[in-house]
Amino acid sequence: MNPSRILFPLLSLLLGACAVGPDYRRPELATPTQWQAPLPHAGKLDALSDWWAQFNDPALDALLRAAQADSPTLDKASAAIRSARANLRSAGASLQPSLSAAITQTQAGSKQGNGAMPVNTTASALDASWEIDLFGGTRRGIESARALNDAREADWHDARISLAAEVATNYVDYRACQLQLAAYQDALRSQRATAELTALAVKAGFSAAADGALAEASLASASASATAQAASCDVTRKALVALSGLDETRVGALLDSQPVRIPQPAARQIDSVPAQLLTQRPDLVSAERSLASASAQIGVADAARYPSLTLNGSISLSASNAASSVPWSFGPTLAIPLLNGGALSAKLESARAAYDSALASYKSAVRTAVKEVEQALVRLDGARRREDDARTSAAGYRAYFIASEANWRAGGTSLLNLETARRNAITAELNLISLEQTRVENWIALYKALGGGWNAEASSAASSTVSTPRN
């Protein structure tokens, strides 16, 4: 039989075949047309790239670079990308014919009295097979693998953004902690001077013993607060060591190289259209690509319920010291699933359920993204408006304490009034530092909520040209 009589009709059937299962379309989700929270700086469209450069803090920049260069989290995400790419190549190989070769050599004979020579046989064979993708199951598998590859690349970018935000937040925490420690230490020095003067007054009989006890108690309380704050700063420093991968000496040198201040971002403008999140946040891209993969898996499961056709062929050469032959074979194999106890239908239903679950996750991710931006804007606006009042309050309480201390030294007010004024002053100063810290961290939260300026198209093009996603 002429093999072309079988091959050509089958190829025609292949070219005309359609892939079963749904053709994926990204769902259109309802999003608000504008932010409902107050927008800083009029909310004009502006890129969020080079976000960290606006802080103009070399120590922060160095810590961010170190964290991005050596992070177990990014290494894990990078490994997931390599695995997804390998799966994609494996899926693509399923469309190609497979060819295998084998060589065998045997020696056979029998033990007889006449001393017959053994027969030496050498055989080589080529076996080929090609499964025709009649109903598109393999193509849907490739579609699914490609979407998952895109999702893993987006996950890596999301990990980078989260890592940068975590490093920056810890850095801001550390600087705020240092400022609060300085405030506690300043209060401690003032408290120590007060306690010394009170002790002299009690010894001279000018003050009651209760005043001495109050002064010593206030001094001990201030010392305990300063010690606790110092420990808190040390804990945050060690967090920066873990995140950056640098040794503690190097991290300490970086931190000490810059003045103790909370880094202040320059005025930034943001996009006021929530729909932009769909292309700007890598976690949403990952969720949408996972949804596309789940859709393609429906086609894979559906195609498994239909017949499969495989072209098989082989040719072999067998030679011995007795004879030689060249057998060959070619022909199709049609496999038809008949009875499987409903297993294939159950797999199809499972694939559809997995798609519904992925769709729900995608919808939830979009809603969460809009919520996070709205909340970041509200918190940022609230911190900004409260900060002016907090600064006025801190200045007023500080002035009142200075006046109260002068009055106490002159004998015009009690030690209890002085301690009350001191406590109000330190509380107001700590509150101001905390608000400055909160405002900057809300900027960082907004950066993360808006996807850090990540661009899906640019990142996709870049990732296709590098072998290691860290580059």
* CATH architecture title: Up-down Bundle
Looking at CATH, which topology would you report?
Outer membrane efflux proteins (OEP)
- Tell me about the largest β-sheet: 5 strands, antiparallel
Please, how many domains? 1
Q: Bin the helical content.
A: 55-70%
Residue stretches low in confidence (pLDDT < 50, at least 5 long) are: 41-48, 458-471
Shape: elongated
Strand content: 5-15%
State the helix count.
Answer: 11
- Mind telling me the C-alpha Rg? 37 Å
In N-to-C order, the SSE pattern is: HHHEEHHHHHEEEHHH
In the CATH hierarchy, what is the superfamily?
A: Outer membrane efflux proteins (OEP)
Give the topology.
Elements lengths: L3 H13 L41 H12 L2 H22 L4 E11 L10 E14 L4 H68 L4 H36 L3 H9 L20 H4 L1 H22 L4 E13 L3 E2 L2 E8 L7 H67 L5 H35 L6 H8 L8
Antiparallel strand pairs: 1-2, 2-3, 3-4, 3-5
Helix pairs in contact: 2-4, 3-4, 4-5, 4-8, 4-10, 4-11, 8-9, 9-10
Would you kindly provide a written description of the structure presented here, covering whatever features stand out?
The protein has one domain (23-98, 134-302, 360-463): Up-down Bundle (Outer membrane efflux proteins (OEP)). Strands 1, 2, 3, 4 and 5 form a five-stranded antiparallel β-sheet that branches. The model is unreliable at 41-48 and 458-471 (pLDDT under 50). 63% of the residues lie in helices and 10% in strands. The chain is built from eleven helices and five strands, in the order H-H-H-E-E-H-H-H-H-H-E-E-E-H-H-H. Helix 3 (72-93) packs antiparallel against helix 4 (137-204). It is α+β, with helices and mostly antiparallel strands and 471 residues long.
